[in-house]
Amino acid sequence: MKKPLHKHIGQGVRNARNHFTKYLYERDTIFATIWVFLFIVILGSIPLNLGIMNPIKLGLKDFDFNDISYSELGKGNNNPIDSHIVIINISDSDRGKLSFIIEKTASMNPKVIGLDALFFGPKDALTDSLLRQSFRKHKNLVAAAKYEEDSNRSLVLSMNHFLNDAARSGYVNFPNKALETTRYFFPVKKTGDTIFPFFATSILQLYDEDCYHKLVKKGDTKVMINYSRNLTPIRKQYQVLDVEQLLADQIDSSAIQGKIALLGYINESPDFIEDKKFTPMNEKFAGKSIPDMNGIVVHANILSMALEKNYIKKLPSWGSWLFAFLVCWLHMSFFIRYYLENHIWFHLVAKIAQVLSAILFVGLGIHLFDEYRLKVDMKISLIAIIMAVDVIYFYEAWATWMHKKYNYRTVFKPHHH
User: Fold this and answer.
1) Which of 5, 75, 222, 342 minimizes the number of CB atoms within 10 Å of its CB?
2) What residues make up the domain containing 403?
3) Are 294 and 333 contained in the same domain?
4) pLDDT along the chain (417 residues), means of 10
């Protein structure tokens, strides 16, 4: 009698499940999975200067699959201009001209002025005096600085000659190296009983108390930047004012009144990389070669994220490692089943499984990031799946030796390939 369709489907599901679970609870499967993560930890602890002998660190360094969400899937492309923020391009203005820019901007009654510029030591006495007066006069002006360690290993703010003249300041350091992608920032930095605010944090304190307190609660911990807008020749998601038009009274005061006025350097041309940083919005999500976003636009994105309460939730590291372990355990059971029972097909099936799993888990991670603002680090899971196949050979040799030496019970003993 011919089987009904639903029974054929049920049998197929049971067969597929058996492929993955037949060896799932075998001690060898669990131990081999543990071996995978021991290899990951050991290889990951090798100093980076050993180059090709450290594939794990090289693979993990400055790479995030979620960058595909920005560079390839166009995350944020359709977001409207942020009406809370206006950027004034100060270009290469000297200190005297900056004083006039601050005065003209302040005359249009912005709620906050953020000046993203650093000043190294004294220069011309007259222009220094003009800029110093502007800093002292406007209490809603937030000056930029950088934090660094002093001789006592305490943090101090520096790199701004006029720092003591400003009513408010904020540091502009990012916790990444110069050629790495800017993904995170610290809302505040603590040193003893002193708390230094980030540049955007100081601005928020004057602009929106509720958003400020929500950000400050995150404390001295890395917060991921949810990039939502960009400034390129084809994407204008922040209003940018020309400084010459501003000084010539060709800008209506409504463009600035009641807003956050960010004063910083802007150059939208991809050929000019001065004061630009690598971001996930870079068109090349891997092997980036040209920085893509001016620092003031990075700060604008942080402010947009905070004002819209559009933070990214991140699965804790232990959660990513636990997920990776469960995924590797399931794949190890599947690989061992073919290794022992259909070894002639083992490598073909394993490679196909690795490719399909990579597509599945990368796609899942991007979907969670894009739709639910949840970041799950899939790199560990993918590395574990890739390494599982080779670890089986190491584990088989060890288990067989242990069986001969100590009568260790193993599923590998009766099989020879």
Assistant:
1) 5
2) 18-61+319-345+362-373+389-417
3) no
4) 45 51 90 94 68 47 75 80 96 94 97 96 95 97 93 88 95 89 95 92 97 96 94 90 94 96 87 82 74 94 96 92 95 94 92 93 90 89 93 93 90 66
Is 26 in the same domain as 57? yes
Sign of CA dihedral 323, 329, 335, 338: negative
One-letter amino acid identity for 7? K
Of 91, 34, 399, 409, the residue nearest 265 (C-alpha): 91
Indicate if 35 and 98 belong to the same structural domain.
no
At 44, which amino acid appears?
G
Q: Do residue 235 and residue 323 come from a single domain? A: no
Nearest to 96, CA basis, from 121, 120, 132: 132
| Angle formed at CA 22 by CA 18 and CA 23, multiple of 5 degrees | 150
Residue carrying the six token digits 């636009």:
297
pTM of the model: 0.85
Structural domains counted in the chain: 2
Beta pairing class for 260-264 and 112-115? parallel
